[in-house]
Amino acid sequence: MRPFIFAAFSLPFGLLAATLTATIKPSTVNLGNSATLTLRCEGGAASTVEQTSTPKSLALSFVSSGKEFSLNNGQRTINSTFTYHVTPRVAGRFAIPPFKTMIAGKEIRSEALTLTVLDKNGNNTPQNIAKSPPPALLRVNTPVKKVYVGEVFPVSMELLAQGLRQNHLPVPQLITEGIRFTRIRPQYRQSSQRTIDGILYQNVFLFDTGAIAMKPGKLNVLFELEVTVMDYRQDVFGRQRKLHLTSDPIALEVVPLPKEGQPEHFSGTVGQFQMTASAEPNRVEVGEPIELSVTLSGQGTLDNTPIPNADSWEGFKTHPPTSEVQYTDTRHLNSRKTFQRMIIPTQSTLSHIPALKFSYFNPRTEKYVTLNSPSTPVEVTGSRMPASPAGDPPGPQGIQTSEDIPKIRMIKDTPGHLADIQPPLIIQPWFLAIPATGLLAFFTAFAYRKRAEYLETHPEVARRLHVERVTRKTMRTLNSSDSQNDPSTFSANVQLILREHIGMAINRPAQGITLQTVEESDLRLPSESQKSLERLFQLDELTRFAGSSSQLDQKSALQDLSRVLRDLK
Q1: pLDDT exceeds cutoff 90 at 369
Q2: Of residues 192, 89, 201, 88, the one with CA closest to residue 134
Q3: Helix, strand, coil shares of the chain as percentages rounded to 5?
Q4: Are 177 and 107 in contact (CB under 8 A)?
Q5: Which CATH number fits domain 1-104: 3.30.70, 3.40.1170, 2.60.40, 2.40.160?
Q6: Measured distance CA(51)–CA(101) in Å, rounded
Q7: Residues 6 or more apart from 86 whose CB is under 8 A from it?
Q8: Is the whole model's pTM more than 0.90, yes or no?
Q9: CATH class for the region spanning 272-381
Q10: What strands, in cross-sheet order, belong to the sheet with 75-88?
Q11: CATH number of 132-256
Q12: What stretch(es) of the chain map to CATH 2.60.40?
């Protein structure tokens, strides 16, 4: 009995499937207030959680963490809880990206959430917003609810606005990880104006594109964009507003490809395809090239699909192929890929080019399909190509090379140079350098003293030189491997350069400069630089207080720093 009891209590905590659940309360806040984000890991002990991406216009600050024990069907488990404050910077509807953690060597993620932020106007309550439609809407729709990894599916996006106030048309951006567009900038068309709940939307744009699921799991597909429109809800003449729109989440289940029945030549292509192959010329001599053309076409993406191969290329010498992809529809759901490969026959006994094989997964029939091209007949004449030895090819017979010709030493006509006549001492460089050294030292000391006196009377020049010196030294440290491997050190060096330049710009000490200090000063930066500055200060807070240094994107941080320093000059 005792061994049974001991075994029951010694079971590992992670036997149950671990889950990471995210909740935010309240889901709607006024600008200036914060919401509480709670992450609860059940079925495993999580030491920390990390953001999968940095949310736009939202500041996340770590509050606390804790652990608790519970019994589930007689089994003891550990539950971890992490609490964050989410503080918005502007009004709008925002997506809070998923968080991730590692449990027993396996990564688990939470679902993405949405947060509605209201402006400071007293009439802008949740009830009034529900009754009054917003001046802009973002709607996204897809006819599928379940796809396979690598399968393409259509996506339709609709932007409705009361009046756009910007030169370029914004394109909705995909927030959800594990999904990508089939084209970088989707094609759009403008539709006629529309009235929804009594609000007339003069600008209606439809975006047609496709998407590809890259990893399995249950996902919430979210899109976002920033748009400047006219708002007529509180002013009959309208007021220009910049809105952050987020679409309603779309539940999508991504199924992994089955292992059963997977062909040996399968390269991960999903869809429905056809294959054709041809070779020209079909009459050659041994050693002459043949151009092999292979075309794959059908529904699905062929971007990363390799050229169909044969079981064996015995008797042929093959060269690396070239390829070109074309799309036959506006959404890029149907494609055609053409391969060109040079093959050289090495035997006169060859009578055909081997058959090619291409395997793909058909999501409609949920089965693997293997296409076989017929073997192409060829006529090869001539003798067998000899195997080339290592090194340079042999030269023509009967012709001696330079190495075979004996080398003959010629008799010198003159005995050569017998002695060197030294120049006079007065014109030798080392003799002239002795008195010049003392004169150079005198002028160097004189220039150093004048420079010190100048810097004492011009403190702004002295500070500028100090900031440049600190920047050069710290930038060398940022580019070193030790700093790149230590996110905390990297972030501290970035903040040192940033605060030195801001302090010089606003004529304040560099120590203790914060984002609030910049906002209270007269310093004004372009909008892109202002966003970069906010991201750098937020990065410092996350690195020092939230323990999120593992998510440091060094390349993006250096780009933001370069942009701010450029506009501070």
Answers
A1: yes
A2: 201
A3: 25, 35, 40
A4: no
A5: 2.60.40
A6: 9
A7: 24, 34, 35, 36, 37, 58, 59, 60, 96, 115
A8: no
A9: mainly beta
A10: 19-25, 35-42, 75-88, 58-72
A11: 2.60.120
A12: 1-104, 272-381
